[in-house]
Batch of 4 targets.
Target 1
Amino acid sequence: MIEKIEEYLAEVKNFVTRDKNEIEQFRIKFNGKKGILNDIFARFKEVPNDQKKEFGQKINTLKQAVAQKLDELKTFSETSAVLEKEDLTRPGFPLELGSRHPINLVRNKIVDIFKSIGFAVADGPEIEDDWHNFTALNLPEYHPARDMQDTFFIEQNPDILLRTHTSSVQIRYMENHKPPIRILAPGRVFRNEAVSARSHCIFHQIEGLYIDENVSFADLKQTIQFFTTELFGKSKIRMRPSYFPFTEPSAEVDVYWGLNSETDYRITKGTGWLEIMGCGMVDPAVLKNVNIDPDQYSGYAFGMGIERIVMLLYQMGDIRMFFENDIRMLDQFKSL
């Protein structure tokens, strides 16, 4: 009898059809009142006691195989019926195309420009310690310039915080690499600022650093000149004296935007000039903090907010739009 059950198992395994009548005949043959399974169960009492365990396992295996096969045949039959009604030559539904975020678009443009003159991209953690975010950058404890970067602290004593600028990446890179150094450090930064159309507590920066022998302010100006021409198509710049704790001398960079439209008057306040970044020569104290000899090496650094550049390039008036994930705004960048 066990051999007969094996034959039934093989029959069930090899049975394939999508015809509903044949499926019903298969069900009646095995699961009907006078079907094979009921007949086998009826004969179970005739099986010798020493064979009942093996016989029972075989019966259960056959029962499960029949149930599984019936489920498969039903699914196959229903699917085939749907396909027969469908026009398989009809084009499928179009897939919605995504788009790159405008911040990523501009970030990639800036990176490509600086890569073309030898800069590499460096990265670092968004959660920083006091040394890399402040002290090594010539911002010791109680320095008044820290008040400009009212900070999100995670722990205190020792201070652990969300980085307030990507200058911390520069410190980490200089600690682990010898000059010449030529890097970009893009990424998110965090400051405790009131959210408005022009500011946000989260924004993106991209900073640059070049350290080598005999680097001068003239090299910095030439680099900035190249960058503004490539990104904005505007080559007229001016550099105004400013103050940053980690550079000396320091400057704010303005690009001449022009006064060709009402928008130009509005964003430049009628002057035609627009501030785009800060820069300067790396302070010797910063070089000493990372064990680079300031008597042998010098360098420059610069930094800008990516959102500010995006707002200029695409004439966007509210920085909050970058963080609201409004599909209507993002759809405008599908072709870029």
Target 2
Amino acid sequence: MTVQELIDKNVFQEINIGDDTDRSITKPFCCDLLSIAMGRAPAGCAWVTVMGNLNTLAVAALADAACVILAEGAMLDEAAMKKAALQGITVLRTEEPVFETALAVKELLK
């Protein structure tokens, strides 16, 4: 499934639509510790987190995540919102908990 196909499912709210929506999503990845995500997030993942700040976007770019999904009602702060648009990073959100969000992505990938 591509990022655009995930967006088209209308499961998650759109915060920022990035530049590379034709990119394939490899798997969901859950982590709120940026240092761990930086070293362990697989390229092409849909990264599910509650961290909505500039550092999250930096790690998403460094780890080569396909998109970021903010769970549990988390939002990007204003600076992160501008940075997501500038860097072309797709950011989605949901009120659902992290585990259920990742599980939904996993099911959609089947």
Target 3
Amino acid sequence: MKERIQKVAMDLFWRYGVKSVTMDDIAREIGISKKTIYQHFEDKEAIVEEVIKHELEKLRGDMEHIDREADNPIEQMLQVSRCLQRERNNVNPVLLFDLKKYCHKGWELFQNHKHQYIIKGVSWNLERGIQQGLYRQDLNVNMMARLHIEQIEMAFDASIFPPNQFNPIDVQIQMLHHFLRGLLTEKGFQLYNQYVDQPVIEIKN
């Protein structure tokens, strides 16, 4: 039952954000009483926390799979971006805003993941790309890794890219290619053109 509550809650959070989804909504969607939910979760924030933990663990697994399968840093970066696009395609852009403003534990989990895992992963990609002659030698790895992560988050900032004017996934795609092309050497650019239209690496769950 706990896993079922978590899954249904995640679907609702992804569609509507966190703030607008109530415990009544979750109970109604499952067809159980709120009392049953409270037997497994103290409150809505506890559900959010478990949902975020689960999704971040899944995301780490997906990224590790791509790391193993990608032939080089350029393919890796493109495949990671496509994986994120696929995962976020059905996510309401308000979700990150709601996490930041209303769910401090969930937001802290996301921030810890960003700084302890994603930035390190991007830095590793950049260092390998430089070593292989695909990325420019003069890159500041720490600075560029942070810039890339903030751009991904920025794509979902409704105050910068209002959802009624911009599709967050389209914004993210534009930002990724703008960022990546700025890294490339001539050798890297030739390789980049070979990967642009390739499908995403299949991730088996």
Target 4
Amino acid sequence: MSRPFALCLLTCLALQACSQSLPDRLGAPIEGYSHTSAAINYFMVNGNGGPNISPYGGGGKQNCCVSMPRQWHPGLTVVVEWEKDPNTGDSVNWPKPRYSDAWRKAAREHQSKYTRHRAVGEVAPYEELGVIDVHFLPCNQVAVSAVAVTPGQAGYPFNYPSKMEEPAVCPAP
């Protein structure tokens, strides 16, 4: 190896060691929106927890984080798992006093009606990675966004109404 070539190679290696490359994946906060009359007791995106969501509510509360690619690519999906409370107002009819044996029995019966779900959601295209937004829709469907804008702003990929009713019959998955 000639001296000038070796010197050039060493210089290139030294400069490469000084350069900072961007990571391929970043941590993105998680938030959710329930467009149904059910509460979301908890949900997870790729095993990382999101906040609980009241019926027809959401946004504003974020949990950290899920690892996502810095750049979107076709076929990008996440696994969303959640627990749903279909009748959140039921506790007003439970026996009194609170935490009595009868009250605890009513709470156990209520909890037995919780349902658990799992869906693979395709992530909408994004230019810049932002917050992971999971939209809980009728028929146990989800829509997932990771754009750097919030719902209602230009460039947000979904425009679901805040209140959506369950159809009499859900389409087959």
